[in-house]
Amino acid sequence: MRQESQTPTDGRLFTPEMKAELRTTQKQMLDRLVMLFAPTVMAWYYYGSRALWLVCIAVLTAVVCEGLGMKILGRHPTLRDLSAVVTGVTVALCLPASSPAWLIVLAVSFAVLAAKLPFGTARSLLFSPAAAGLAFVTVCLPQYVFAYPALPASGESVPVFGSSAFTEGVSLTQMLQNRASVGGELANYLDILLGAHAGAMGTGCMVALFGALLFLLLRRPKQFTAAIGFLAAAAIFALLFPRTTAGRGQSVAMELCGGMLVFGALFLLSEEPFLPKTFYGRLVYGVCGGVFCMLFRRFGAFEEGVMFAVLLTQALSGVFNRLPDAGFARRLQAHRRRKDRSRTETALPEKGGAADA
Questions:
Q1: CB 173 within 8 Å of CB 24
Q2: Is the per-residue pLDDT at 2 higher than 90?
Q3: What is the 3-state secondary structure (H, E, C) of the chain?
Q4: Reduced to 3 states, what is the DSSP secondary structure of residue 297?
Q5: So what's the pLDDT on residue 244?
Q6: Among 90, 266, 91, 302, which Cα is nearest to 176's?
Q7: Higher pLDDT, 319 or 225
Q8: For 9, 97, 165, 298, which has the most beta carbons within 10 A of its beta carbon?
Q9: Is the pLDDT at 94 greater than 90, yes or no?
Q10: Contact between 109 and 292 (Cβ < 8 Å)
Q11: What is the DSSP string of 63-109?
């Protein structure tokens, strides 16, 4: 079915299978847009109209690249499945509000043209396009990707990175690299939960992201399993190997709330096409992603490693699909068969004894 959906027929008509796939993808992408709404609003709240402007540029770039790319490749247009819109919004929210427009265009263009179009539709991908686009600009232009601006005062605009008015802030991930902490005051923790600190413009507000996590639980429990496994593994890793001297609890809070960790678990790792089919496969998939993320953060060349952890985990998704749950299921079935046999063997003498009597 997937192969047929990727093969053009007459360039205009969709087969029934393609229509069904389109509807399924539309529903998934609409759910993701609902989840992305609150982070986008918080980006606008903290960084003003420039945040919305960058999101619009990202969406427009994704739509144009996908439309032109599909036409050049002679495939059916897929703009109606909304996956291009989701990719654009996701990439934009993971970059600083001080990013020049060309950085947004570069990241989104790579995501669509290099990581999405060569593999067909949004349901036949090998990697998350957004994670691939972010990894590309991170490797090529880290000075732009991690140049987080200080929060502007009310009514002020965010200066572009490189301008004389630009003032760089200190993110939580930068503080962890330097083994620093935010302090033990309650106001500091409230700032962390609300996203009132330097970082990527749409990934800092934990209240909005935890709301999206609850929405994922209600609407997409399979994706929730992978996301919660990712977050649990990262939290346990931070608890066992803290990077701050202020205590293990603060280490967990700063690791989870800093950078793209929660955002990546929700919008990069748990995309539907990459999830293993079984519950335990999805759980192990998420746990491995969380461990990879923390290893990249601790030993990698960059302060943030979520996008690299997501790409590595998705490359191994076939292994999680085959191994984690198959052995458990076989052992469970064998245990049930042994239990049924033992019950049958114990019941037979009783029946025979009753007949003899």
A1: no
A2: no
A3: CHHHHHCCCCCCCCCHHHHHHHHHHHHHHHHHHHHHHHHHHHHHHHHCHHHHHHHHHHHHHHHHHHHHHHHHHCCCCCHHHCHHHHHHHHHHHCCCCCCCHHHHHHHHHHHHHCCCHHHCCCCCCCCCHHHHHHHHHHHHCHHHHCCCECCCCCCCCCCCCCCCCCCECCEHHHHHHCCCCCCCCHHHHHHHHHCCCECCCCCCCHHHHHHHHHHHHHHCHHHHHHHHHHHHHHHHHHHHCCCCCCCHHHHHHHHHHCCCHHHHHHHHHCCHHHCCCCHHHHHHHHHHHHHHHHHHHHHCCCCCCHHHHHHHHHHCHHHHHHCHHHHHHHHHHHHHHHHHHHHHHHHHHHHHHHHHC
A4: helix
A5: 86
A6: 302
A7: 225
A8: 97
A9: yes
A10: no
A11: HHHHHHHHHHHTPPP-GGG-HHHHHHHHHHHTS-TT--HHHHHHHHH
The residue assigned the tokens 């064998």 is 334
Tokens matching residue 135: 């990894």
Please give the Cα distance from 189 to 308 (Å, whole number): 28
170, 147 contact by CB (below 8 A):
no
**Structure confidence by residue, pLDDT tens digits, 26-40:** 899 999 999 999 999
pLDDT single digits (tens) 178-208: 888 887 777 888 888 999 999 999 999 999 9
121: Cβ contacts below 8 Å, ≥ 6 apart: 2, 5, 6, 21, 25, 78, 81
Of 181, 179, 95, whose CA–CA distance to 141 is shortest? 95
Predicted TM-score of the model (pTM): 0.84
